[in-house]
Design brief:
The chain has 6 helices and 7 strands, in the order E-H-E-H-E-E-H-E-E-H-E-H-H. By secondary structure, the chain is an alpha/beta fold. It has one domain: Maf protein, CATH 3.90.950.10. Strands 1, 2, 3, 4, 5, 6 and 7 form a 7-stranded mixed β-sheet that branches. Strand 5 and strand 6 form a beta hairpin. It catalyses: a ribonucleoside 5'-triphosphate + H2O = a ribonucleoside 5'-phosphate + diphosphate + H(+); a 2'-deoxyribonucleoside 5'-triphosphate + H2O = a 2'-deoxyribonucleoside 5'-phosphate + diphosphate + H(+).
Length: about 210
């Protein structure tokens, strides 16, 4: 009896943070960016928007002929602050204003996840939510952080594993979700599709 070949895994995201978390968990997906126009997608709430974007990215990549037979993971994150969905700031001015609004408060990082099984033509999706409690950085600290360029490339204008980490007092929920992907949720979505996450592990080097 021979072992079944490991399923091909594709990440429909250009986020290095998501790729890094998946690799740390023993997975080694290929990266194929969806090219979805995020501004063209709308939804009533931040959580629904994150999910709609994740489903759009996964389905666009899953439709490509070169990924047939693969499992495709799509994700997208937005920060829910007072019911408003905050993605990547468009410029330094917006990032600065965003941080001055967020400091001393809490928001909810919503990350939509969609796993698409192109072999079975089925998908499973859900949103993971993590509360983020922001500290109270000074105007000078905010200016220095914005000048670093980091907040312009991440949802909510902050990261949990980068230069803004000292400005975050704590979180309630999955830290990986804030970085970009909830591994426990990915495991559950794979299970809905009849795939065990350990079946996708890459062999350990001896």
């Amino acid at each position: 009896m021979t072992d079944q070949p490991r399923r091909r895994l594709v990440l429909a995201s250009q986020s290095p943070a998501r790729l890094g978390l998946l690799r740390q968990a023993g997975l080694d997906p290929e990266v194929i960016v969806s090219g979805v126009d995020e501004d063209a997608v709308s939804a009533p709430t931040p959580a629904e928007l994150a999910l709609a974007l994740a489903e759009a990215k996964a389905s666009v990549v899953a439709a490509r002929t070169e990924v047939q037979g693969a499992l495709v993971i799509g994700c997208d994150s937005v920060l829910d602050l007072d019911g408003e969905a905050l993605g990547k700031p468009k410029d330094a001015e917006e990032a600065t204003a965003r941080w001055k609004t967020m400091r001393g408060r809490a928001g909810t990082l919503q990350t939509g996840h969609c796993v698409y099984d192109t072999a079975a033509k089925r998908y499973a999706s859900a949103t993971a939510s993590t509360v983020v409690r922001f500290g109270d950085p000074t105007d000078a600290e905010i200016a220095a952080y914005v000048a670093s360029g980091e907040p312009l490339h991440v949802a909510g204008a902050f990261t949990l594993d980068g230069r803004s980490a000292p400005f975050i007092e704590g979180i309630d929920g999955d830290h990986g979700n804030v970085i970009g992907i909830s591994l426990p949720l990915v495991r559950r979505l794979l299970a809905e599709l009849g795939v065990g996450i350990t079946e996708l592990w890459t062999p350990r080097e001896k």
